[in-house]
Design goal:
Belongs to the ROK (NagC/XylR) family. By secondary structure, this protein is α/β, with parallel strands linked by helices. It contains nine helices and 15 strands. It is 38% helix and 23% strand.
Length: 288
């Protein structure tokens, strides 16, 4: 079995790629690449950007790379390699196109060398493989950012739980557990417009509205975790994504709120691997 494979994380505005040593469970030094991508670009612009980044990784390594494992946001036909993303602010030009065939053609490799997997599932797979869920045989994962990613790990494999659209409060879960909720709610409370959670922390940490918005978020996150846990009955959970970088303002409260609902303390951990989790999880699929 090939023990050095390429892991790739495709985001709405970036691509991150590296070679992963599956024995050492970490990236091969000097192969890490992160590039901006215009997710609203034409299909050729997007494919050119991805191909260029992949070529950078390949050229940084003397050996051969026989497998490429790509973490991709949904909706996506992962086995076939066809993008089904349409009503989103990214990759609309790829809708209905066979990305696997197009990439293989541009990279001059066989389509059998390219594999796609859901990005939230890859995140959780990476955390189980060598991160904060290592040692657990049954876990759930959340990525909190522009959108809400949810995954469930059982029987040695992580899969997309697809709970972002779960009915929640007056809408769906993603309405309350994403960057857009923070932007909307903070504006309602303070009249101030923010770009994202990072700006909220940098400019307004400690203000009454800041404390209120994070208190509400902690309650929402605990309520969602409670529903998720009741449906899947995992042993632990892990949280990643950009919003998790503000963990000091909500994670302890989330644990406390959840413990009140559950009647006992349930493990809710922050990602150990952060951005590397998704790459490592994608690559780990090579040995599953």
């Amino acid at each position: 079995m090939e023990r050095i494979v390429m892991g790739i994380d495709i985001g709405g505005s970036h691509i991150t790629a590296a070679l992963i040593d599956l024995d050492l469970k970490k990236e091969v030094e000097g192969t890490w690449v992160r590039d901006r991508v215009n997710g609203r670009g034409t299909i050729n612009e997007v494919m050119d950007a991805w191909t260029e980044s992949i070529a950078k990784v390949t050229s940084a390594y003397a050996g051969e790379v026989s497998q490429i494992h790509i973490a991709m946001p949904g909706p996506f036909a992962y086995k076939k390699g066809v993008s089904l993303i349409k009503n989103q602010d990214k990759y609309r030009s790829l809708y209905g196109k066979n990305i696997k065939d197009m990439l293989a053609d541009r990279l001059n490799i066989n389509t059998s060398a390219i594999h796609f997997m859901n990005d939230a599932a890859c995140f959780l797979q990476g955390e189980v493989f060598t991160g904060s869920m290592n040692g657990y045989d049954h876990a759930i994962g959340l990525t909190l950012g522009t959108g809400l990613g949810t995954a469930h790990y059982v029987n040695g494999q992580a899969k997309d739980a697809d709970f972002w659209k779960m009915p929640f409060n007056k809408g769906i879960a993603e309405d309350y557990l994403s960057t857009r909720w923070f932007i909307k709610r903070y504006f309602e409370l303070s009249g101030n417009t923010i770009k994202d959670v990072r700006e909220l922390v940098e400019k307004y940490a400690g203000t009454p509205e800041f404390k209120e918005v994070f208190a509400e978020f902690s309650q929402n996150l605990a309520a969602f975790l409670y529903k998720f846990i009741r449906k899947k009955m995992p042993l632990a959970s892990v949280i990643g994504g950009n919003i998790s970088n503000a963990e000091q303002y909500f994670l302890d409260d989330t644990r406390r709120n959840l413990a009140e609902m559950m009647g006992y303390s349930f493990p809710v951990r922050k990602s150990l691997l952060n951005e590397k989790a998704t790459l490592i999880g994608a690559a780990a699929a090579a040995i599953l």
